[in-house]
## 1
Amino acid sequence: MTVKDGIGAGLVLDGRLHRGTTGLAGEIAHVSVRDDGPLCLCGNRGCLATVYRNGPQLIDEIQTAYGLPITFEDMQSLAAHGDTGVRRILTDLGRTIGRRSPTWPYC
């Protein structure tokens, strides 16, 4: 899984990358995390791609909590050094993704 300029993932089974019928199997950006979220081009509502704007909104939430400009690299560093606030935001996001029953519209 990656979070940088976007939110993405790959689907690897038995050591092989699986692309799905349209080449986007495992595309985590289209997991719905907010039922009442904005409409996404994939047809779902509240996808990670729309709720977190493929990553920048996550940085905005952290900046709001800290009241300081924070880059993606700052977030990585804070998380790596055990910053409680950043780790909580990332943990909450991970739990939300893990709890949702994804429908992979592009598989």
## 2
Amino acid sequence: MGASRKASVLFALTVILGVTNYANGQLLSSLPKSLIVTATRAGGANLSGTEVHSGIDTITVSWKLNATLAPGVDAAYKKVRTKLCFASKSQVLRAWRKTDDNLSKDKTCPYDISLAAYTAAGGSANYTIPKATPGASYFVRAFAVDATGTKVAFGQTSDKNRTANTFTVIPVTGRHASIDIAVAIMSAFSVVALFTFYFVEKYYLARKKEV
């Protein structure tokens, strides 16, 4: 069987699998973990165990095919979608972040990072943490999708329990140094104005009594 014939067979099987999974609810556990995913700071430092600030810091997400896999395993891969996901400790007692093996019900990865064409050489994307991102621990997951948009493989920066190689997002506080400075100036002005009116009034009344 030629290489093109093998690729066609793999594509057909992937489409059939995708239709079946769509009907029954696609399971993360049914997908091969064939992508290697890394997340670093813009300068290249590993994110694991570090803090980044929403609305300020930019991270770089990279992915590539596991080189140990058999040739042609990625024949059906057309695009790669990367997502920002909640780590386990930030899902506790938060049903709206609950992990479910059924991807149609899973709420682990609510934030899209990028969607790019798949290439055998891999790819990367820069992502500035949005200001609205909640303060929590996160990891990054990538899905390979086929021509129908069905997820056919994945990879992630963390382990399967979503506990290792995570990083923390520090949320924006809504306050800026300029606001704090303005408040301090206004407070000082109010105190000065109060004492000024006090002494002016006291002096005026004293003069009025003399008259």
## 3
Amino acid sequence: MNISEYKIKFIEKEIEKSYLHACHFDINCIKPGNVNIHTSHTDMTAEDFITSYTVTSKIIASPNLSLGERIENSIIATKKDVKANTNLGIILLCSLFSQSLSLKKDTILSEAIRDVVLNCEKLDLSKICNAITIANPGGLGTHEQYDVRSDINITLSELMQISSEYDQISRQYSLFFEDIFNFIIPNLHKSLSMIPDIKLAISYTFLKTLAKYPDSHISRKYGDKIAKKTSNEAHDLLKILDGDTRHESWGTNLMSLDKHFKMARVNPGATADLLVVSMMIYDYYIGLADQ
């Protein structure tokens, strides 16, 4: 299975369904350190995330928007009802997937994503930068040459290449979803095939992703050493879960790491964002509920 080679097709209702489905699982599964229906952060709750994906679903699935419009409109809609930044990474990634499906050509998904990124117009880039400024993600900081708060005279591809050094969302733009196609979705597929409980399968995929890729949100806030430590802790839990093939203690162990991360105020938010778009793509082409 290589979803990157699937043909693009824009089906508005299916895009909205897959987006809502992915976001629903995102908040209903335990992804240690992230908000879920059981535990919140001090500045945001599960209800904030539910509101965020509810008010943006039709924008993400609209057939009549450019990439910049899709992203900017989604962030503006979110900010009307939610004060915290709940979904910038999700919106950036899911908008790119949706936009790639809307291309009026016979091509495969990976090529469509490349096409959208490389041919993004300056006006769209300005809208994307405005959306990032409005969302104001943690650890955004400033860049001497290229800052999203100022007029940028480079392309989207060049901007994402520069910021990919410290941001996983930008990395996926610059690599045209390479990590998503080559690692996260294959691991999601394998987990869903091996683990009967879909929520546990998604949690397991989250841990696999975090163990492989130190979270850039944590790196920006606390440094690379803490991000690597967090990945190591995810790896340690994976070894424990692998020893319980009946999955009886998985929920308890996941909640324990979740509590530990939240007490330390460690939030692997970028990892969660990557998983959301991976679930959306998987659901759109294959179907999460069918597993």
## 4
Amino acid sequence: MAPNFGEVQTYRVENAEIHESRLLIFHGTRTSKRRRTQNNGWSYSILQRLYDVMRQFNLSWQSTAHLMTDSAQAVFKLKGLHAQIAANKTSDILQRMELVDMSRSVARAVLLDAEDEDFKRDTYSFSGVPEVLDKFMLRLAAAARLPVSLLMGQAPAGLNATGDTDIRFFYDQVKAEQEHTLRPQIQRLVQILLACRNDNSDFKITFPALWQETEKEKTELRKIQADIDAIYLQNQVLLPEEIALNRFGTGTFSSETTIDIENRQMILKADHAV
């Protein structure tokens, strides 16, 4: 069975039908072939899985903001309130409430009749609300496939918490996407560009390091690699020239080790000739 069996053969781009072999297609979310066929060959956007979660996250914060505005409700008790309303004395009631608000704004106090009036403030308890918001935050981070510390700019909480584990896990995901998604597409594009120039040069695609080491970590790595190279050299596993080329042949330090058999044979022949 052909590898592209069940896939769309031609795509419509700006009112033109283009064969799939002429396109570099970067699919979004993982979508079945049947769904992509129903969607004119395109997969769903990576933002699709975030849409509903972001709406719920925004709604939770808006609801909390509304609770904050209604967190304290003033209650004013009047004796014979129903009787006054039935007697159509609402104007007197409104005038009394205006006087109460005026006294609060001027003297930050409430003037009450000791016998038939009472004033209190009912407050709303926010216990459990921060935990709920944190859960929505975690759900949004999971949908975005990002650590909370990167998505929300939130520092890790707890003793000795640095967030390095979350960052390294995220970098591992990015590295996997680079290797399995970006590298084949970039490699194909470079091959096409070189073929247009009749250039048969070999090339290698490398991605910049995601995790930036500190100077201390770099020094420790070089010290460990130097000890390993000394053991290789002592046991005649590597030649001094090979160690030098592998470590500093590219102009920068590298811990990768590759052996060029033809170059080694030339070095050994030159040593024997001397």
